[in-house]
Amino acid sequence: MTEDSKDIIEQDLNKAINFLGQNKFSEAESICNNIIKEKNNSDAYHILSSIKLYKQEFNESIELVNKSIEINDENPGYYVTLGCALSASKDYQNSIKAFKKSISLNAEVAQVHFYLGESYRKLKKYNDAIASFYQTIELSPDHVAANMLLGLVYQEKKQFDLSVRSFKKCIEIMPDYAEAHLNLGLCYLLVGDYKNGWREYEWRKKLPKLSSDNLKKEWTGQSLDNKTLLIVHEGNENLLHFIRFAKELHKDNCKIILQCSNEAMELMANQKWINEVVSEDSIPDHDYHVHIGSLMKVLQCNPNNLSQEYPYLESKNNKIQIMEKDKLNIGVVFETSRESSAHDDESIDEETISNIFNDTHNVICLDEKITKEKLPTFYNEHFNYTDLDELAGFVSSLDLIITVDHLVAHLSGALNINTILMLPCVPNWRWEITHHNTTPWYKSVTIFRQETPGDWSSVIKKVKEKLEENNHV
Fold first, then answer.
1. Which of 127, 136, 274, 472 has CA atoms 20 to 30 A from the CA of 244?
2. What element of type H or E holds 67?
3. End-to-end CA gap in the chain
4. Is 323 helix (H, G, I), strand (E, B) or coil?
5. pLDDT surpasses 80 at 212
6. What is this structure's pTM?
7. CA torsion, ordered 108, 112, 118, 122, to nearest 10 deg
8. Torsion over CA: 70, 75, 80, 83 (sign)
9. Does the pLDDT at position 318 exceed 80?
10. Strand, coil or helix: what is 196?
């Protein structure tokens, strides 16, 4: 190849890189494909791989960057792209190998150590993840994301002081970083520090999904005598968990208007102390508004010091009966929301849970995502419900609920139904870690927690023993 040809290829690669930076992918692809027609070029393949990675076409990205590496196996950037594509396709073992190879060629790039740490974190190799994140911070002291993930890893290791320190470091670097404040708040709440927890939890309102457009003045404790308070929706779990605190406000001659989802509307309309129920995108006339998750901060609630009444919700829906009088009627949920980032950690394999039941149990599936056609064999029935009022009426007629962290746990707790809640080693912030088998939020809920991360065997053993205690709970 002549020097002129090399110069032309170099110029074309620079053009492709500029197009890539402007997200003009078709232009960049065209240039790279033309280069490759003339001669296999590792950088052209790498640019094409980067485009595929951006488009989330991970297999194609991996194939293309491997062609770059076949031509030149000494470029650390190629291995970074390979590692990112492998990580994005959840092949964390091989992404670790790719990132390590990149580091062996150039150990001075902080972001590669960060990527390596994230792959270790995904595999729950927490000590390796911590080492990688600290290496990231050594190279880049103000690396916010590394401090953030350090906080999350320390939380998984139950080293909550170190978790708090890491989140605070994020905030020190970037004082208005809402996600860092929120994670700090959730950590405080998990360990029962409600004063600091509720304060930091307020930062969730800075996130885009909690817009306050068109809302009037926020209620922060002002008198509600003869005022109208709009309670703003924040999801069904928050609704079921925190609506109890609005009941006290109704006593101040306050008109309560509640935003809620369509599936919660009828259940909430049945609560006599709620004056009006509207859809979650409706904003009727009001004097004050409050997000439902902010009630605890305004009311300065610590559930450990509260005298609470149960049930705090009532259902009038008892239309469906599939109970058996001579058996223990049990409603079961073993899978969390599939959209949740914690789905894999909080859900239990159906085979693992199946051996706790016997012929004296009438086991009913309450998971709306499981169809009757694909019902696991240990179930006797499947209950289909269209809204939470229908579900509440059915739950009220059961003898027992056995569930993972799911809205059913909040609903059965609110209805004061005997409930066994199965939790991972480090649960969602709602299930305070300082309690063992109980929760201050619901007196009818018994908790069995993992003893070792990822191991449900001890939890299943305890549930089975509980069921065998004279066949009642």
1. 472
2. helix 58-71
3. 81
4. coil
5. no
6. 0.91
7. -120
8. positive
9. no
10. helix
The DSSP call for residue 218 is: B
Angle at Cα 136 formed by Cα 128 and Cα 104, nearest 5°? Answer: 75
Render pLDDT for 11-52 as a digit per residue (tens, 0 to 9). Answer: 888 888 888 888 888 998 898 899 898 888 999 999 999 999
The two structure tokens encoding residue 227: 């005022």
- CA separation for the pair 375, 270 (Å, rounded): 32
**Structure confidence at residue 4 (pLDDT):** 52
Tokens 């909430």 correspond to what residue?
Answer: 268
Contact 389, 270 (CB under 8 A): yes
At 392-435, the pLDDT tens digits run 999 999 999 999 999 999 999 999 999 999 999 999 999 999 99
pLDDT in tens, 285-297: 999 999 999 999 9
Angstrom distances, CA of residue 457 to CA of 353, 355, 435 = 9, 11, 20
CB 182 within 8 A of CB 200: yes
Bridge partners of 261? none
Tokens of 190: 């998990």
Nearest to 113 by CA among 136, 95, 134, 97: 136
432-459 residues labelled b (16+ CB within 10 A) or e (exposed): bbeeeeebbbbebbbbbbbeeeeebeeb
Residue 86 tokens, joined: 């492998």
Report yes or no: 407 and 236 within 8 Å, Cβ to Cβ. Answer: yes
Cα–Cα dist 312/19, whole Å: 59
Model confidence over 56-111: pLDDT tens digits?
999 999 999 999 999 999 999 999 999 999 999 999 999 999 999 999 999 999 99
On whether the CB atoms of residues 117 and 129 are closer than 8 A, the answer is yes
Closest residue by Cα to residue 405 from 472, 364, 348, 357:
348
